TrEMBL record:
This is Histidine--tRNA ligase. It comes from Liquorilactobacillus vini DSM 20605. It is found in: Cytoplasm. Homodimer. The keyword Aminoacyl-tRNA synthetase applies. Belongs to the class-II aminoacyl-tRNA synthetase family. GO terms for biological process: histidyl-tRNA aminoacylation. It catalyses: tRNA(His) + L-histidine + ATP = L-histidyl-tRNA(His) + AMP + diphosphate + H(+). It holds the Pfam family HGTP_anticodon. The keyword Amino-acid biosynthesis does not apply. InterPro entries: aa-tRNA-synth_II, aa-tRNA-synth_II/BPL/LPL, Anticodon-bd, Anticodon-bd_dom_sf, His-tRNA-ligase, HisRS-like_core, HisRS/HisZ, HisRS_anticodon.
Length: 432
């Protein structure tokens, strides 16, 4: 039998995993600047956590969730997105108490699962980086979250991105718009796709999110929610736009944007890239919005929230096309070349001294000739080689070669073994 990974999954092997580590490292650095702390929730949750929050008519619930009954006949779901599980943890652990600072800011990283047709940047097991901020219903926080998302993508090397936003209003706005949308769509009911015919009865806003070409043609002339906003909802959206302008952040308004999950309200946004990874078409790489009311749905108090998430696989596709491979590379600081059996123990000591100084180091373990060892150093993109032969060992020196400039110098072996940090500083100063 030939064993293979399940369809729609990937093995993240050495050479690729370093790129993931780069993305995760940058994310943690950016989130730290904005005072977000990490949360880790289970990969699986009770089915109701997602069915209740994501919406019974959303594609995630109706088509894409991996759900099953465990041995105790509990209905379990592999998490299809991060927010609902984080909200469940927020409520269960009473992170809304009076002693907790508001906004309560957290971030997460990890795998998600959706049963859909695998394609480039869209897998059945995929990974998200996301943030959530609870406890503040202030348009300024909406803007800070969007600014952080842009900061995150730009810190990773993405340049040509655009921010697109809309508002879904408050509950009163939604109710008025709901009726107007039903009145508009009802005459076209027979022409809608089967999915949208169901959505029209249960949640008409879902029709706006349809990918069916016939549905898209129908909703082009549909009324827009911005025409049905209450004064409070309109003011919230006005202040969001005003604060974005204050930060000189360019944005576009898309009145047809609704997002794919039912818990959103007020501000929603997407950050898009026209990367060649997607054929030059503007494609979403990061998305989010406000979800006041979601905490209450899962049994908590009335606490507003806002957040975003991005798909790591999709982001890496964009970074690769953008030419960031050098930045993502796992470059080796030093490769130690040992020539002759007599140098083996000293080469081992030198490798360990380099590592203890906080640098990366490697050496040969296969008794290869010098030519083979230098080839191995090149394959690993080593910045320097340190060579010890029997002559060097006798003279207590090490030959150092800059692999970029081919410049060679000699350093004292004892100094390298006992105080490598000082030796390295001198070597890099010579390089500069």
């Amino acid at each position: 039998m030939k064993y293979q990974r399940p369809k729609g999954t990937n093995d993240i092997i050495p050479g690729e995993s370093e790129k993931w580590q780069f993305v995760e490292k940058i994310a943690r650095q950016v989130f730290k600047k904005y005072r977000y702390q990490e949360i880790r929730t289970p990969i699986f949750e009770n089915f109701e956590v997602f069915s209740r929050t994501s919406g019974e008519t959303s594609d995630i619930v109706t088509k894409e969730m991996y759900d099953f009954y465990d041995k105790g006949q509990r209905h379990i779901t592999l998490r299809p997105e991060g927010t609902a599980g984080v909200v469940r943890a927020y409520v269960e652990n009473k992170l809304y108490g009076p002693e907790i600072q508001r906004p309560f800011k957290i971030y997460y990283l990890g795998p998600m699962f959706r049963y859909e047709r695998p394609q480039s940047g869209r897998l059945r097991q995929f990974h998200q980086i996301g943030v959530e901020a609870f406890g503040v219903d202030n348009p300024t926080l909406d803007v800070e979250v969007m600014a952080m998302a842009l900061d995150l993508l730009q810190s990773m090397g993405l340049k040509n991105v655009k921010l697109v936003l809309n508002t879904l209003g408050d509950q009163t706005s939604r109710a008025a718009y709901h009726q107007a949308l039903v009145d508009y769509l009802q005459p076209y009911a027979d022409q809608l796709s089967k999915d949208s015919q169901i959505r029209l009865k249960k949640n008409p806003l879902r029709v706006l999110d349809s990918k069916d070409p016939q549905d898209q043609a129908i909703v082009k002339q549909a009324p827009q929610i911005t025409d049905y906003l209450t004064s409070a909802a309109a003011e919230h959206f006005y202040q969001v736009k005003d604060r974005l302008n204050a930060l000189k952040i360019d944005f576009e308004i898309d009145p047809t944007m609704v997002r794919g999950l039912d818990y959103y309200n007020h501000t929603i946004f997407e950050i898009m890239s026209d990367s060649k990874a997607f054929g030059g078409k503007w494609t979403t790489v990061c998305a989010g919005g406000r979800y006041n009311g979601l905490v209450e749905q899962l049994g908590g108090p009335e606490v507003p929230g806002i957040g975003f998430a991005l798909g790591v696989e999709r982001l890496l596709l964009v970074l690769a096309v953008a030419g960031n491979s050098q930045q993502l590379a796992n470059q080796l600081d030093v490769y130690v070349v040992g020539i002759g059996q007599a140098t083996d123990a000293t080469a081992l000591q030198l490798v360990q001294a380099i590592r203890q100084a906080g640098l990366t180091a490697d050496r040969d373990y296969l008794n290869r000739k010098p030519k083979g060892q230098f080839k191995a150093a090149n394959r690993q993109a080593a910045r320097f080689t340190f060579t010890i032969g029997e002559t060097e060992l006798a003279n207590q020196v090490v030959k150092v070669k800059n692999m970029t400039t081919s410049q060679e110098i000699t350093v004292d072996l004892t100094a390298a073994l006992t105080n490598f940090g000082t030796v390295w500083q001198k070597i890099t100063e010579k390089r500069e």
